[in-house]
Each structure stands twice: as structure tokens, then as C-alpha cells.
Amino acid sequence: MLLLNTSPKELGLELVRVLFVGLVIGILGGLAANLFVLGVGAIDGLIREQMVGQSALSAGLIRWAALIAGAFGIYGLKQAFKMDRWHGPADAILGAHRPDAPFPAREGFISTTAAFVSASAGASVGQYGPVLHFGASVGAQVRALFPTRLTPDIYVACGVAAAISAGFGAPIAAVVLVSEAILRHFAVRAVAPITVSAIVATAVTPLFFDRVSPYSVTASPTDWGLIPVVLGLGACAAILAIVFMRSLLRTAAWAKARNNDLGMLLLAATLMALIGMLVPEAVGLGTQSVNDLLAGEKLVGEAALMLVAKLAATVVCIGLGLVGGVFSPALFLGASLGYLAGAVAVGLGFDPSAIVMLTVVGMAAVAGSVIGAPIGVVLIVFEFTRSYEFAVAAILAVSMSSFISTRLFCYSFFDRQLIARGFDLRQGREFLSLKDISVADLDAEVVEPATEGMTGEELVAHLRASHRTEAYVVDAQGTLIGVVPILTALANPDQTASSLIEDDYLVLNLSDDLQQALGVARRFVGEAIPVVDEAGALVGCLSEGAILGGTLDRQEEVKGRERN
What we know:
The chain is mainly α. It is built from 23 helices and six strands. The longest helix is centred in the N-terminal third of the chain and has 44 residues.
């Protein structure tokens, strides 16, 4: 954080560092995003070449073989690197909310590799989630090499912005989406490096790669009589997004309970191959299928079948372990739903051009609910359609969809994943950051323990000498066995301490975090809470005031960062 009395020289040097960081992360993030997308397309293209001219059964077997190979590859990666789980955008969000916790960059790179294998084999997974997390990992690594006054969360945000910008060719949307979905607040100190990263990543694409925005659409004038249809589409999109997210979580929970990673991967590969034989559009990333919908080249029945098949294929693949993102599948599902809404609108007498607009709106509405970035998604629509009218229609549907999905499900799919891991972002980053401070970091008061053989009279004398009202009783090994209040000791002068111990006393461990300590303090009634080490030995005590003071100091530090 720069102070008001910073000299011009210091300000200039810091600005150079900030711009340099944004430039480096933008280049690396842009290269990574493009190489991921182009690499997946190249490998998938080779597989499709082998399927050309083959019978439906033979083509299906070729795809099945590729998926089986991908399943073994993913299983091998998980075993070789001893991954307990795959990482993704949820970890990038958590990393931005816990800047003092080490960012798992290694796991991010390995998880992105696994997602690359999965997508290349033809699994129905997304590319932008893995690329986003890879960008965050790049940002974390750059910070290790080029530290500045910028906090770690800004480095992570720069990496995410670079990945999104390169993937969609939408730098403005990338800046807003990162503030909305990753940082969850707007900070002036973050604007410069994030903007530089986003713009540089967008510039990298045409400079080094023959690639443009993945989706192609020609905007047409909008009939504002479609507003009721747009709002209805938004409500339907919310329902579809909720079904999609709940199905993913339940399938993943079922697969985890089986405790057979390889078996689940092989099952996913087989089911994906079968779905692909029936509905080829459900295979892979589905970018071309979405463009076909945007061009109005599908029949209504085909669009409905594509929606059901893609939903089933994505739930099977991601739920059973073929790792990948949810953003691209959400766009596919939204496009299919919007296409069907367009067909309804045409049946009601609207111009056929409404199909294109509603397809785009459907994409935004479903994706906005899934990733929790309604404004960012609308800006993506605006940047790749260059249509103000499409963006206005999209924000109507996205607002309706997000309003429903946030109340019936959660803010996003990633938030629900984090809640399952014990991180509820709804509590705010101030409360969440308490997990980064342990009880060992607080100044515990050293106390003289009482022994279990002391009588009540001796305990009273002990407490008077130490000016305390509670005695902490330990055994011969120094292990805490209980607490005796002075009133209990006064009432029982002849009984031993071991017989006077209260059954339900509260205790803190050195390894507990400040959030856990605050929870204990809320239930505590007494003088101070005893603190023990891993072996249960008494090391001191903490008053409620000490815990509350540590909490307030931490929260003020986090607020200071947000206030720039």
C-alpha cells in the first residue's frame, strides 16, 4: 500500500513493478490459455480424423479407446503426484480470500494437466475452469519470483484475468469478472495490474496464435416485445443451472463413496462413449455445436436432445472423475435452452432472428448462475457480440436467473464446493481470514498448574497466590485433566482436585485457528480458556478479550487491504 508521502521516485519504481507484474502474468497466462485450447483441439482433431469414414460402431469404439486412455492417464497422474483431490476455480477463489495462506500452485498445474488429458480425449468437460485455475497458479508463481507491495490475491487475480481474457478475447469482461467472482470486491490497487494482464493476454492471441473468439454470432435488432420471453428464459435457466449443479455434486458424492477411483473413471469413459455414439454433439468441449445453434442450423428436436445429452454427459464425466471445468458445459446448456426458447418465440409470432438473441441470452443466464458472475458474463456477451441490445436482454435474464439460483442453491457452484470443505464465503473475507491465524500465534498467558492430589483448601491457597479464580489441574505428566473453580474448592476443602473437576470444561489446542477459538469463546463462561499442545499438556490460557482482540486486529488488517 502506497502512502500519501511516498516520494515521486518510489512511486515511479512501484508503478514500474506493478506494470511489469501485469505484463509478465498477462503474457504467461495468455500463452497458457491459448496453448491449452489449441492443444485440446489438435488432439481431438486427430481422434476425429481416425473416426472419419468409419461405421458408427467403429467410430464409437475409437472414441471409447481414447476416453479409456484418458482415464488411465488421469488415474496415473493422481497416483504419481499423490493428489487427494483435483483443484479448480474454487481454489483460486479461496486463494484470493486467504492471501496469507500458501497458494497450491503445484496442485493447480497438475490438475490443469489432468483436465487437458480429459478434454483432449473427448470428455464432456469445460476448458475455461482449468485454464482459469492455471492462470491463478501462474500468478502465484510470479509473485514468488517478483514480489512487490501487491498482496498475493492480486497476483492470483491477474492470472485469472489473463486466462479469461485470452480465452474469450474479452479484456473488459475479464477485469470485471475477476473483481466480481474471484476477489469479490473492487480495489483500486488491483485495477492497474489486472487490466494490464487482461489486455496483454488478449494481445498475445493474435500476435502468436491464429485464433479468435471461440463463439461467432451476428447480432440483429431486438424486438423488445420479447421481454416476457427473456424473463421466462431467465427463470428456466435458473432451474436448469440448479439441476446441473446439484446433479454434479450428488454424482461426485456417490462416486467418492465407492472409493474406487479407477473404476469410476473407466465407468465415466464408457458412459461418455455411449452417449457420444447416440448424440455426437455431446462429445468434447462442444464449441462447434454452440456455434451451430448460434447460426440457427439445428432443428428444435435436435436442440432438445443436445441439451439432455450434454447434461447427462457432463454430470457423468465430471461427477465420476474425468476432471474439467463447468463453464463451457454451462454455456452449451444455456445455448440449447435459449434455442428452444427462440423456437417458442417464433411460434408466438416473433421474427426468426429472435432465436439468435435468445440463444445468446440463454448462454449468459445459465453460465451466470453456475459461476456466480452475472455482470461479468453480460460483459462477455457484449464484447463478443458487440451488441448493446443483446447485452441488455442478457442482463434481464441473468438477473432473473441469479435471483432464483442464489436463493435455491448458492451464489455459485464453486461456493457450494467450498462450503462442503468448511469455507463459507458468505461470512466475508474478514471472518474467513481468521483461519490463517492459529492459537499458537496469540500471546497465551502462562499459568502455574495445580496437581490432581491437591485438596480443596490447598487449591484455594494456590489460587489466592496466583490471583486467579480457576485452577487448571494436571496429572504427573503435565497433561490437563480439568478445571476447578474457586467456589467449588471453597465448598469442598477436604476433597482432592481430581474429584472436584468439572465435566464440561472448554479447551483450546495450539493448532486451532482463530475462527475456532472465537467459536469456543462464544460458549465460554469463566476467567480464561486453557490452552494445550498436541500431547494435551497445559501451555497457558487465553482470555476472551485476547481472542476478541486478535480477531479485531485481523479483521481490521483485511479491511485495510480492501480500502486500499
